[in-house]
Fold:
Amino acid sequence: GAVVSQHPSRVICKSGTSVKIECRSLDFQATTMFWYRQFPKQSLMLMATSNEGSKATYEQGVEKDKFLINHASLTLSTLTVTSAHPEDSSFYICSARDGARADTEAFFGQGTRLTVV
Amino acid sequence: GDSVTQMEGPVTLSEEAFLTINCTYTATGYPSLFWYVQYPGEGLQLLLKATKADDKGSNKGFEATYRKETTSFHLEKGSVQVSDSAVYFCALRVIQGAQKLVFGQGTRLTINP
Structure:
């Protein structure tokens, strides 16, 4: 089946620095990728939707200058948390859809636990 | 807008017990419906899905039937195992646009031996 690889799985960074999270589709072309944030014991909150080669669409309340999303190829999307602060600590999950296949589900990465100290 | 409501947890059962996790939805049209499972520290795995009314999704002993009349997609399993302990998310896929997923709040399931 389709595989989505997310890296790193865990990262600890100092307050004020930036962190990049990668999401790769390994065996299909991901025309659309989604980025979610999950707080402890809560559901997934969609942050943004990105389509290859175009700007991401952010959900209401998500700061686009804080969470930079780049979807430069059909197999890679990145999320950069800029000037991270402790309140950005969370579990971030990406998912990807194969736009060439109709009515296909999205596949999820393993998630990245970000801790800002 | 579209939304998903699932029963609150946590749910604790003994091994071999019968499981039901309720899920209802509000949506425009007839979206595809999904159950995902999340094990500790991991991303989500698709458990089962149904794309139209009266469809039954099944996998690993879990089942859910797409009920249009009650706008429900309840998850069931006849005999749970300790390895089923996880968080379960019900979701629908929005029909328009990027077809994003809308998730319920998740139900934490713990199975005791």
The CA atoms of residues 22 and 74 of chain B lie 4 Å apart. Chain B is about 0% helix and 50% strand. The mean pLDDT of chain B is 93. The radius of gyration of chain B is 14 Å.
